[in-house]
Structures are given as structure tokens and as C-alpha cells.
Design brief:
Helices cover 69% and strands 3% of the residues. By secondary structure, it is mostly helical. It has one domain.
């Protein structure tokens, strides 16, 4: 009799997921250490020691959570969500200002970043809500309530202001709603509105800083009176189109009303977005399009990051032999630009290892989503996949110059306790879902 052993299932523990996370964190410690070495070879930072402490304590947390039944989080998810909202409100009011954002709350050097914790608490609460409302998942009411659940923490994070972290909530919401069976039409509406809002918001700045042309069309996006007239005109056409649709049931009336509704909402939101965005946030988007607009100011980070990545070549300059980081050309090099240091010192081939490990994590997460017989577990896994994937794509894209700088860390690799503990707590829940994939059948 032939015995087949599945290594990923021994003791119901997903070793592929666990080991991939451990390897990434070990790599992160090595390069956080490298980021703290100056051009004379002297270690000027103890961040790597703190990271080791956070990794060890985070792993203990991960293992404890993995052996708990994740169903217990369903009952307490509203309380966790509510506590996170309170912490976000307190942080926005009394928090410590770091890099222009009031994101930290604590005493002295000891503090937490509630915005990181709120990602996980929101995923848990939204998963619970969507499971409880599975029978009405395609209704507009369920969609709106679900979006409010996401918007409340996202709005409080925007107040800090932390645009990068706030953006993470959007892919979490979209993926979770899609996996729950939400209407594609509603998701397309949301995505289209978001994209158009960004384009409309940036158009005046693009004309001023990039194309450097004096276009009369700019006033269509900056003059409040003109914007009001245009918005009212679009609203009137939408009403007329809807009346036409209800009276004739002609599809083109519905398409016209849908298109103008998306355009009109985006147009109005772009006005408020320009009022809310800080100057440095606007410049981050501008220098993404053209870093040479401000090469020694806002464009410095992206120019130096791309230089570091490119100078690594195929095999890198060697560990502790990078110049961009050791000569301190890269700001926030242990957090936002950790991938730039890795690229410079171990090159393209080393990056392939990083990408392979993340690919294994995504593969195992998708496997958990598909194999879970419980909607709550599947939705938690979906939200965490959305969060990890967004961090992965934006941070690496930022380092190589194909994404705007947003201040989003590279999970498992970047320095930071709040971010690491949050994601390891989430991985612990994923392992719990995997372990009980056949035991929680609805």
C-alpha cells in the first residue's frame, strides 16, 4: 500500500506559508541592519535589534492565534473595529507627528500605529458583516453599508493625513466584495469613480508642472462657480436620461445616465480632493510623472531609489557594499525604500527570490480561500490577500519608479513593529482557517 504524504498538510499546518514568511522576515532583518551602516562601515542604527524583537514576539503571537479557532474573532470583531476607530480618532487628535503625518500614539519612543491595526480589524468586521448578509449581498443597501464600514477607518486615516495607508482599504473592499458575490456593476462604478477622481484632481497640476501650458480648460476644474454650473448641468441630464429610460426602457438612456453619474461624482470629488491634499502629497504625484520637476526636492527620493535599483544589476554589489544607502542618499531606507537597498546589494537575481517568496504566500492564501468551507474564513483570507498584494505592488513599484511614492512599507521586510505584528496576526488567522478548512462547514 502506497502512502502519500502531503508536506503542506502535516498536522494541518501550512508550512509553505509559514516558512516563506519566516525567510522574508530574516532577509528583512539583514537589510535593516545594512540600512544602518554608514559609508565608514560603522553601525549607526539599532533598528535591526528592535526588528528581531518584533519578529520573535510577532511569531509567538502568530503561533498562538494559529491554534485558536478563528470563529472567535467573528463575535468580537465589532468591538475590535470600534476600538480601532477610537484609537484612530485619538491619533488624529493627539498623535505624534512623524514625516508630516499624525499617525502614532503612545508615550515617548513607545507607540503604536493604529492605522495598521485598523486594516485587520476592518477585514474581520467586514467579513462578519458580509457573511451575515450573504442572502442580500447584491443589494445596494448591503453594498453601501459595507462601504461605510471601510470608509470610516479610511476617512480617519486620511485626516492624519496618511494617503498611502488610506488607499489600502480600497483593494481590501473590492476583493472582499467580489469574493462575497457582490454585484460587479457596483464595483465597476466604484473603481471608475475612483480613477476619474484621481485624473480630474491631477489635471490642473499636470498642466502647470508637466506640460507647462496655459490651458483655458484648467478653469473647468478650479473655478468653483463654473464647476457648480457644470455639475448642475450633468445632474439635470442624468435626471432626464433616467426619465427616458423608465419611460422607454431604451438601454442607451441607462448608459448615458450611468456615464454622467460617474463623471459628475468624480468631478465634484476632485474639487474636494484638491482642497484636502497637502502640497507634499500633490508633489509626490507630480514627480511620479516627471521626477525632474523637482530633482533636489520631492523628486529626490524616486531618483535615488531608481538609481539604487538600477546600479544593482543582475547580481548586486554585494551585501553591505551598497553606496546609495551607506552614503545616506535614500531617505526612509529601512522602511519605504528597503527594496531599493535589497536591489542594490543582491541585484535582480536576489529580487527574484523575494518575488518567489511572495508568490508562494499568494498561492497559499488563494489555496486557503478556495479550500475554506466557511465564508467568514474565505473573506478574511481575501481581505488579507488584497492588503498584502497592494503593499507588495505599490512598494516595489514605488522603488522602481512605476508607482507614486505613498509611504507604504513592504510587509515582512520593512522596519516597523505595528505593521509587522498586524500582518503576523493576520497570517496566524490564515493558518487557523487552513487548519480548520474541513471543520467549519455551513
Amino acid at each position: 500500500m502506497k502512502i502519500k504524504i502531503n508536506l503542506s498538510s502535516i498536522f494541518g499546518f501550512d508550512f509553505f506559508l509559514f516558512v516563506s514568511v519566516q525567510i522574508l522576515m530574516i532577509i528583512g532583518i539583514f537589510f535593516i541592519y545594512s540600512s544602518g551602516v554608514n559609508s565608514n562601515g560603522v553601525v549607526v542604527s539599532t533598528e535591526y535589534i528592535k526588528q528581531i524583537v518584533w519578529v520573535i514576539s510577532g511569531d509567538i503571537l502568530l503561533l498562538i492565534v494559529s491554534f485558536l479557532d478563528y470563529k472567535i474573532f467573528k463575535a468580537i470583531s465589532p468591538w475590535l473595529y470600534f476600538i480601532a476607530l477610537i484609537l484612530l480618532a485619538l491619533t488624529a487628535t493627539f498623535g505624534q507627528v512623524v514625516n508630516g503625518s499624525r499617525s502614532w500614539i503612545g508615550i515617548g519612543s513607545l507607540g503604536i500605529q493604529p492605522s495598521e491595526i485598523s486594516k485587520l480589524t476592518t477585514i474581520l468586521f467586514l467579513s462578519s458583516y458580509l457573511e451575515d448578509n450573504r442572502n442580500s449581498i447584491q443589494s445596494i443597501r448591503t453594498f453601501i453599508v459595507a462601504f461605510i464600514i471601510i470608509f470610516l477607518p479610511m476617512g480617519l486615516v486620511l485626516i492624519q493625513p496618511d494617503l498611502g495607508t488610506a488607499m489600502v482599504f480600497i483593494p481590501i473592499f473590492i476583493i472582499m466584495m467580489f469574493m462575497a458575490g457582490g454585484k460587479s456593476r457596483n464595483l465597476i462604478f466604484l473603481i471608475s469613480t475612483g480613477i476619474l477622481t484621481i485624473l480630474f484632481s491631477m489635471y490642473p497640476y499636470y498642466s502647470m508642472f508637466i506640460s507647462k501650458t496655459e490651458s483655458n480648460s484648467i478653469i473647468l476644474f478650479t473655478d468653483q462657480k463654473i464647476m457648480t454650473i457644470i455639475s448642475l448641468a450633468m445632474a439635470a441630464i442624468v435626471i432626464i436620461s433616467l426619465l427616458g429610460y423608465f419611460l422607454t426602457r431604451k438601454g442607451y438612456f441607462y448608459l448615458i445616465s450611468s456615464f454622467l453619474t460617474i463623471t459628475g461624482i468624480s468631478y465634484v470629488l476632485s474639487f474636494f480632493a484638491r482642497k484636502v491634499l497637502k502640497e507634499y502629497q500633490v508633489m509626490r504625484l507630480i514627480v511620479f510623472l516627471d521626477p525632474q520637476v523637482d530633482p533636489r526636492g520631492s523628486g529626490w527620493n524616486i531618483i535615488q531609489s531608481v538609481t539604487a535599483v538600477g546600479s544593482g544589476g543582475a547580481f548586486g554589489k554585494g551585501y553591505l557594499k551598497g553606496t546609495q544607502s551607506h552614503y545616506r542618499y535614500l531617505p526612509e531606507q529601512s522602511t519605504d525604500f528597503i527594496f531599493s537597498i535589497i536591489s542594490e546589494e543582491i541585484g535582480f537575481m536576489g529580487n527574484l527570490l523575494i518575488i518567489l517568496l511572495f508568490s508562494i504566500i499568494f498561492w497559499r492564501c488563494i489555496n486557503i480561500i478556495l479550500k475554506s468551507r466557511d465564508l467568514f474564513g474565505s473573506l478574511i483570507a481575501s481581505g488579507l490577500v488584497g492588503m498584502i498584494f497592494f503593499h507588495f505592488m505599490i512598494n516595489i513599484g514605488m522603488a522602481i519608479g512605476i508607482m507614486p511614492i505613498t509611504g507604504i512599507p513592504l510587509v515582512f521586510l520593512s522596519y516597523g513593529g505595528s505593521s509587522l505584528w498586524t500582518i503576523l496576526f493576520g497570517i496566524g488567522i490564515l493558518l487557523s482557517v487552513y487548519h480548520r478548512r474541513y471543520k467549519n462547514v455551513n
